[in-house]
Amino acid sequence: xxxxxxxxxxxTVVLGMSMVWPGxxxxxEKQNQVLNKIxxxxxxxxxxxxxxxxxxxxxxxTGKVEGFDVDVAKEVxxxxxxxxKPVFNxxxxxxxxxxxxxxxxxxxxxxxxxxxxxxxxxxxxxPYLMAGQSLLVKKGSSIKNIDDVNHQNVTILGVQxxxxxxxxxxxxxxxxxxxxxxxxxxxxxxxxxxxxVLTTDASILAGMxxxxxxxxxxxxxxTEEPYGIAIAQxxxxxxxxxxxxxxxxxxDGTYDRLVKKWFGQVPGMDWKELTKS
Amino acid sequence: MMHLxxxxxxxxxxxxxxxxxxxxxxxxxSLILGTLFAIIEVxxxxxPHYIARLYIEVLRNIPLLxxxxxxxxxxxxxxxxxxxxxxxxxxxxxTSAFIAETVKAGIYAxxxxxxxxxxxxxxxxxxTMRMIVLPQAFKYVIPPLGNQFVNxxxxxxxLAFVAGFDLMYQANQISQTTFDxxxxxxxxxxxxxxITLPISYYMRYLEDKLAREG
Lengths: 277, 214
Description:
Helix content of chain A is 42%, strand content 19%. With 277 residues, chain A is an alpha/beta fold. Chain B has helices spanning 2-42, 46-60, 64-74, 83-109, 112-120, 125-155, 167-178, 183-213. The mean pLDDT of chain B is 93. Chain B has 214 residues and is mainly alpha-helical. Chain A binds chain B through residues 20-23, 93-94, 97-98, 101, 117-118, 120-121, 160-161, 166, 178-181, 185, 188-189, 191-194, and chain B through 72-74, 76-77, 80, 82-83, 160-163, 169, 172-173, 176-177, 179, 181-182. Chain B: Keywords: Cell membrane, Membrane, Transmembrane, Transmembrane helix, Transport. Chain B: It comes from Weissella kandleri.
């Protein structure tokens, strides 16, 4: 009994230490270990959002995540390894890169724009959705575009770890910026009047506007920030396979069908704009 | 780590300032409120006793984050309060419930003879409480109060959830801008110690001093 307890204790310590040191020591390990893992386990673990309507949202009735990101992930998994089963883990803008670098997930498909800074920490596939930043306000707000935001008495709401917060700081240096922990909190904060405008990708805001009649998108899309699938560094074979899968989906019409399925009905949004590569 | 400090030193210091400010306000506020509700609870009448019990049990048994979110999302619809204020109010109310319990225990720990002696000498209930019972009660509760204050400073990290600009908020922001998920939290951990360790030591000093004085 004592021996078992000792082993459990040691295991906990080792586990704890491996969690404390994220990402280190990855460079000197073998290449392509993520792809090997997927092919031996027949399981691909994806990090998706679970709070973002149209992209990745937890359906409370079924307990499953649904959305465009999830559908793309399912198709890509099928094309990489027909026998593999896609598994979905919830991530937020703040947790996704640490989780990927830690090895908790194999790939991120979670409304993640390709940026040079992120590309230093992870590897990206080719873009799979042409996203861009927009503004969400309460109906009747005096804010009509990004220029109206640049005033001292305006508070911008965003989400920690998203690029839109940085863009907002550059485009509207006079305004105050508050970064909340997730989109649900940020949306509640907008409704409660904690801020005047919520900014992030149009595809995410569209889901919020579809949910609540008192909110609307304004100012159009003012940045080009395509979404990509992120993979831990040193996995070139997996990146190549994902890119090939995406190209195949675009070629055989699966891709257009999925974009239309999720974004075809959103008022004021041209779904074809999203398919640009 | 040096690189982080030179680049984001201002942000860490800003966070430190907001955490310290929130902690000081909540510490003073919760000590006053907590003592007040402890006294109300020991009033030998059922109505004030149960009002105090309700206050303590409700606030003590709801997660701090829920109380804070309530003020940030719901109450802010009526009174305009920002994340920092909501968080500090939440922290004050939550801690006051624990302090009330602690102070009440201190009051009960004072021998009943003290109370009876006061009343027998013609002091009113309130005079007995204020001049005889409470001064002795506080000697008993100094060590557990110290624990509450240290907890309060640590719990102030709840501000991060409502964009209160505190240490934890800054650490989240910095780690997500730099993708360094380790060092910002180490620095912030040290800065929390800068606040909590002096409290611990001061409380220990007070405890020793009071023990010597008997």
